[in-house]
Design a protein that fits this description.
single chain; four-stranded antiparallel beta sheet; 2 domains; Immunoglobulin-like; Jelly Rolls; mainly beta
């Protein structure tokens, strides 16, 4: 199984703290690594980091271990946060919530990492590691659908994490606004509802005095996929593919006056 290397282990037989994951963890062939490009400017993250993974397995149960790292220009990948998702507990942790998985079926797993306050300097990268274990920090899953916390041989599982189409996994980073006192005022955030949206999206919290507001919608790659005049009846979004988008509101001079993210679902 993928080994524990640092983190909040609180075990005398384990390393504790933010250790480099490259040699012990990332050099193995039993994980997926998702990395941002090198940052062109500092990125400040403050708060809870939320993930939604769309996953599948060829066994009735499996674990998806998550590790978030800060990748330095010299290649070191320093552990910041970790956690784990057990497939049978995807709907909750009570007996009535527990359900084994159908092999090959795609499931949505939601997880929130512990709050983080971190400045990622220019030249650094963020990296998300996904593996089938993080042992011994987390108990091994035998992956056979049987009783938990029993000794025995683990069943080998093939795990899939979806990254495109209607089941694209994603991570929400709580990016902090600038704390500088000089410079332009930050763009106000809007309130969007319902969110997730299916047919129409309503907008609240427009800046006072804005005249003839218009909107545009950007996809995850920053491409404009819709635009128009903002009306009291809301914004039609039924034609958008399921996924996450950024709504921006512009004034008559095409100046940005507010923005907020939303999710489109069927």
């Amino acid at each position: 199984p993928s080994p524990t290397h640092g983190g909040p282990t609180l075990r005398q037989d384990q390393l504790q703290g933010p250790y480099d994951q490259t040699l012990v963890v990332e050099s193995r062939g039993d994980l997926l690594a998702f990395s941002t490009p090198a940052l062109s400017q500092a990125l400040v993250v403050e708060g809870a980091i939320r993930l939604r993974l769309y996953v599948a397995a060829d066994q009735p149960d499996a674990d998806f271990a998550i590790r978030l790292t800060d990748v330095y220009p010299d290649g070191r990948s320093i552990l910041l946060r970790d956690g784990i998702l057990r497939l049978r507990f995807r709907d909750g942790f009570t007996s009535s919530d527990t359900a084994l998985a159908t092999p090959g079926q795609v499931y949505a797993l939601d997880y929130t990492l512990e709050d983080l306050a971190q400045v990622f300097p220019p030249g650094h990268q963020l990296r998300l590691l996904v593996s089938g274990a993080n042992y011994p920090r987390f108990d091994l899953n035998l992956q056979n659908g049987g009783a938990l916390y029993r000794p025995g041989d683990t069943t080998v599982a093939q795990l899939t994490v979806h990254t495109g189409g209607q089941t694209a996994s994603y991570i929400d980073l709580p990016v902090a606004r600038s704390s500088r006192l000089s410079g332009p005022l930050p763009t106000p955030s809007l309130q969007l509802y319902p969110n997730p949206a299916q047919d129409r999206l309503q907008v609240d919290g427009l800046p006072a005095g804005i005249v003839s507001p218009r909107y545009r919608i950007l996809d995850a790659l920053g491409r404009e996929v819709a635009q128009g005049r903002l009306a009291e009846t809301g914004i039609p979004v039924a034609s958008l593919a399921p996924g996450r988008y950024l709504l921006q509101v512009l004034d008559a001079q095409a100046q940005l006056r507010g923005q907020a993210a939303f999710e489109r679902r069927d």
